[in-house]
Structure prediction request, 307 residues.
Amino acid sequence: MPTILGQNQYGKAENRVVKITRDGDTHHIKDLNVSVALSGDMDDVHYSGSNANVLPTDTTKNTVFAFAKEHGIESAEQFGIHLARHFVSSQEPIHRARIRIEEYAWERIATSDGNSKFIGADEVKHSFARKGQETRVTQITYDGENWEVISGLKDLTVMNSTNSEFWGYVKDKYTTLKEAYDRILATDVSARWRYNWTSDEQRMPNWEKSYEQARKHMLQAFAETYSLSLQQTLYQMGSRIINSRSEIDEIRFSLPNNHHFLVDLEPFGLKNDNEVYFAADRPYGLIEATVLRDGVEPKIPVDMTNL
Prediction:
């Protein structure tokens, strides 16, 4: 049976690059995991094994490290844009570059008096602890004319210990869940948002500020929403970002419902007044949805939040 080659790409995945910027005695860290995927005129290498149009994946790896030195890393998005533009503009057979980046945050170790500013001990200026919060992510795609930037975060664990209910749901003969009028609401936020910056003619967003503000609005909405369902909270989180950040048109969430069940303490003669819970890791409810600016067509892939 005859066959043809379908969509394809190649590159070097998970290039770990750490860039130290030395501002006198004070150091700054950017810690990235960069994956490069290139596509274009690659039929011959698949059909005949000819590498005439193939830029080695080892070269893409070297480019990541060289660009960290030559261009620095102002932000994950800006670094990805430099890389994508380079691969498409410098190699004629390459028509499209996709750069995926995870960023791992670090924070300075506090001085002995608990002050995190650079007071007293010089070593604090170059001593860091890995933040145990979320991982920042971005994907930059460039085809020689148009850009698509999708950024976000994953593994941001949040909890409301009250102001959450769940009741009035459908019940059938298999339903055993009791209605809850005061429950814990906890989740590990995975979110991706799409910027409306698509060409060099447009004003480029301030990537660092945009990320910080999107994250802030997301957390504020989570904390301030009196939740009757995780779906309601998700929508409020997305709406807060869309309404507050004009550069973002679409945001997709994947929110596992990290269940906390009240423990039955009656066998021990004790009353559990919403104090002691069993934290179940599986199975878990999984709530996923996209929030869009009115009039905007969705473009973020459904499985994007799994990346």
Summary: Confidence is low (pLDDT under 50) at residues 116-123. The first strand starts at residue 15 and ends at 23. Helices lie at 43-47, 57-70, 76-90, 207-224, 230-244. Residues 113 and 268 are 45 Å apart (CA to CA).
